[in-house]
Every structure is written in structure tokens, then in C-alpha cells.
DNA sequence: CGTAGCCTTGAAGGTGATCAATGTTTGTGG
DNA sequence: CCACAAACATTGATCACCTTCAAGGCTACG
């Protein structure tokens, strides 16, 4: 396949410590797939015969609750793996989550055979997978630690986790355009609750909207204050 | 060190696919440590210079919430690893959770140096670590999927996850003696709520106590029914 | 025998869910 | 280009579930 257009993959966290030939092998038979907005990249319950690396765009990993709602487990962005962690789980295993594109998204699809042949025996790759899994778990555990806190606190923590960490002056933009619904689905709460709290924060300036329809900016200090009080 | 008394380690899930010499190397400089009831095996925030394998007994992995409660993230039983997942995270890293013994507990403590030398370069071990991490994460994700369900449902799901899976006739014992407090801390709810629901279940026979102070037995069918209604 | 940890119950109160209605935006097909 | 549907946003009213608080009892253990 032509990876010449995707130089970016060589810099992905998951391939750090690997040289180019090794990375090329790890991408044997990989295929590029493109998605529009709100398309399924993979579905929970489907046989896990491949996995993906996000090239650009973003995807949400969702689970269906018994009551019909969708719970969002993770937002996968550039360089993130989707469906990779289940590859270890022997043949016949199925995806535990669904992945849905958020806006135009391109991913590299890697067949399970490639995983078995080149990913499984590479200690470096397994360690990198480990680090990735560890990071995700830390996030979920952080959430759980706050599970007894009021929703305002949990929402604040969620927003702070999703601001761009590049600059560190007062206010920062969310690194991902999230709808209220998606925020609610991430926290496992009702949309209305999220809306009410964020309305308050928009009113008191904790959050600002530059343009009418643009991204929202967060005044980190004020947010931290409003949480502690 | 004398592993002759701990033949059991060779059968642990984490060492599956490894031959004895390799396992022995993986246990280089390991030391046996014993704990009574409610002792700290390791503390959140301490430098992560070692990790443990549970030989017998059990330990709970806990995080301290900002409001003073302890949240239980995981119950580690025989063959489980404690503090191992942070070993990858470079030097200077600290334990993200505390581990506390539940009853008399023995663990093998393995220094970080051994991890770096024998665990890190072994793809099989890294893969096994991966599987372990994956299993824990699945559990947490299951919990999160139920986060919008009423507490009865979540409590039922919790109990069902902790029954012994050996026999499958009607009623089964919990595989671990858990206090109401520990159940509450696992679910992130108030003790009183757990007590009230389990009182109801004891009254209607969904749960039975054989002796006054013995373990509790669960009527799985009734529990599933009481959840769906 | 006193303390610490756990269990239990009841009463009161609040947070967040639910329900219903309406507006807005986006995308789609005629 | 317009009409319509689908997804998202918003607001208010009501209510249930769960928390909080307070008080007391039980058991284990030094």
C-alpha cells in the first residue's frame, strides 16, 4: 500500500522506539478507509478481524446501555488505536465497543493477521500498547474517583481534561468539538443537566464563546474556583 | 530466594506460555512479604520501585476521593498483579492507587530492576500484562455502561461478577468476603443505600445467609429477575 | 473493657432524572 | 431552492432516588 501520503504515522506514539522497516512491517496489508460524519468504523459484537489507527479526524468509542442510551468510553484522535486492544483475546473474539466517526475521519485498517505476525512478537509494540491501555484506564479511574462528587465537579474535570494543553494562558479552547449530548454521554448523565450547568458557566464567564457558532473557550482558573466552592 | 514453597506461581495466568527458567528469571530478587488484615501493601504517591504478585489472600486497590471517601478500583486475588502496570511509566513515577490487604495476605515483591531487565523485553509477558489490563478495563467499562441504571441494577451486576463461577446450580457464594462498606466503595455510593437494598434481597430470599455470620449466597435467577422488573 | 470498624434504621432534603414542549441547525431529496 | 427530517439545544415543572445526618447496636481485638 502507499504509505507515502501518510508520513505522519511514523511519528505516532505507538511506533515510538521503532525504526521505519519495522513500522512498515507492522502496517502490512493496511488499507486506508474514509468516513464522513457519524458513520460506524466498527460495531460492538462484530468479529474482531482488524483494528484501526486514526490518521485524522476523530472517533468516539461507544457502548450501548440496556436502557437505550449510548455511553461514550473514549475519544480517539490522531494516532490513537481503535479496536486494537481486543486483538490479543484469541480467535472468535468480538469488538467490545462500537466506534463512530466524528466529522470526516480517515483511518488505517490493519488486519488481525498482521497483528499476529508483527505486533504480537514485538515487545516494544506490546509495551506501547500497554502504555496506551494504561493511559485510558487512568482516565476512567479518575472519573470513578469523582463519582461521588456533584455533577458540576465531574463536568469541570471532564472539560479540563479536554482543553488543548499547548498554551497555558488564561483561557483555552476545547481540543475537540463536542456536543452537549456527547458530553452527557461521556459522563453518563442527562443532557439537560449538562446544559443547565454550562449555561451558568457561560453566564458567569467561566466559559466563553468567541463567535456564535465557534468552539468554546474555558477560563481554567475560574473553572477550578467554581468547582472548589 | 526460595521459591520452592511457592510452586503455585508457575501456574499463574501471567506466566502462562513461559517455561520455568524464564519464570525464575522474572522473579529475580523477589521477596516474600506477609500482611495481616487492613495493612497497606503499597501507597498511592509512593515511588513505584517495585510491584507485587498476590500469592494468597486478597487486596483492594483504592483511591482517595477529594471528599475523603475511599473508592475501590479493583480486588486483587491469587495470581493478580498489584502495582505492575505503572512499571512502564518511566523513572520517577508513583503508584496511582493504594493497595490494602483484606485478611492475611502474602505477596511476592519484585523490584523494578527485575521488571526492566526481564519483564520489559519479553513480548509474552507484555502481552499477558496487556490481557490483564484489558480485563480490568472491561470491568470498569461494564460498570460505566450501567452508570445510568438504578442502583439496584448496578449492585446486582456487581454481585453477579463476584460469585464463584465454579458450580452453576441455583445459588452461589460470593468468592470474596466483602463488607457492605467495601461494596459501597466499589460502586461509589453510600453504605446505607447498599444496606437497604441488600436487606430487601435478604427478606425476599434473593440472598441467603447460611449461618449467622457466614458468607452470603446468591440466588442468581431471582437476582436477575429482580433487576429486570 | 474500651475502642475501632462495621451494620442498621429512620427522617429529611437535595441533586439530578424525567417529561413535555419548542427552537435551532444541518443535511437530504424532490 | 424549498420542504422536511434528523440531530442537537433549551427551558420549566415535577418527582424519585439516593445522600446526608443522627443515633444506636453489634462484634472483634488489643
What does this structure look like?
By secondary structure, the first copy, chain A, is α+β, with helices and mostly antiparallel strands. Chain A is 34% helix and 22% strand. Chain A is built from 7 helices and 11 strands. Chain A has helices at residues 20-26, 112-119, 123-145, 151-161, 180-187, 191-203, 220-228; strands at 31-35, 40-42, 50-56, 59-64, 70-76, 81-82, 98-101, 105-111, 171-173, 207-209, 216-219. In chain A, the strands form 3 sheets. In chain A, strands 1-8-3-6 form a 4-stranded antiparallel sheet. The first copy, chain A, has a 4-stranded antiparallel sheet with strand order 2-7-4-5. Chain A has a 3-stranded antiparallel sheet with strand order 9-11-10. In chain A, a hairpin with a 5-residue loop joins strand 4 (59-64) and strand 5 (70-76). Chain A is elongated, with a radius of gyration of 19 Å. The first copy, chain A, starts with 19 loop residues before the first helix and ends with a helix. The model of chain A has no long low-confidence stretch (mean pLDDT 90). The interface between A and B is large, with 40 and 40 residues. Chain A binds a DNA duplex (30 and 30 nucleotides) through helix 6.
Amino acid at each position: 500500500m502507499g504509505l507515502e501520503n501518510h508520513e505522519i504515522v511514523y511519528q505516532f506514539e505507538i511506533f515510538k522506539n521503532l525504526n521505519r522497516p519495522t513500522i512498515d512491517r507492522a502496517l502490512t496489508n493496511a488499507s486506508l478507509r474514509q468516513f464522513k460524519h457519524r458513520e460506524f468504523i466498527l460495531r460492538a459484537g462484530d468479529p474482531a478481524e482488524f483494528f484501526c489507527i486514526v490518521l485524522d479526524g476523530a472517533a468516539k468509542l461507544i457502548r450501548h446501555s440496556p436502557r437505550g442510551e449510548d455511553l461514550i468510553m473514549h475519544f480517539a484522535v490522531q494516532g490513537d488505536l481503535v479496536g486494537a486492544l481486543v486483538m490479543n483475546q484469541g480467535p472468535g473474539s468480538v469488538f467490545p465497543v462500537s466506534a463512530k466517526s466524528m466529522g470526516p475521519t480517515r483511518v488505517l485498517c490493519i488486519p488481525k493477521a498482521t497483528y499476529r505476525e508483527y505486533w504480537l512478537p514485538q515487545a516494544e509494540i506490546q509495551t506501547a500498547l500497554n502504555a496506551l491501555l494504561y493511559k485510558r484506564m487512568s482516565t476512567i479511574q479518575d472519573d470513578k474517583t469523582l463519582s461521588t462528587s456533584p455533577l458540576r465537579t465531574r463536568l469541570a474535570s471532564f472539560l479540563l481534561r479536554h482543553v488543548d494543553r499547548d498554551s497555558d494562558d488564561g483561557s483555552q479552547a476545547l481540543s475537540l468539538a463536542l456536543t452537549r449530548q456527547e458530553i452527557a454521554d461521556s459522563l453518563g448523565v442527562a443532557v439537560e443537566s449538562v446544559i443547565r450547568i454550562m449555561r451558568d458557566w457561560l453566564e458567569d464567564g467561566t466559559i466563553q464563546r468567541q463567535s456564535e457558532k465557534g468552539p468554546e473557550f474555558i477560563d481554567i482558573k475560574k473553572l477550578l474556583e467554581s468547582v472548589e466552592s
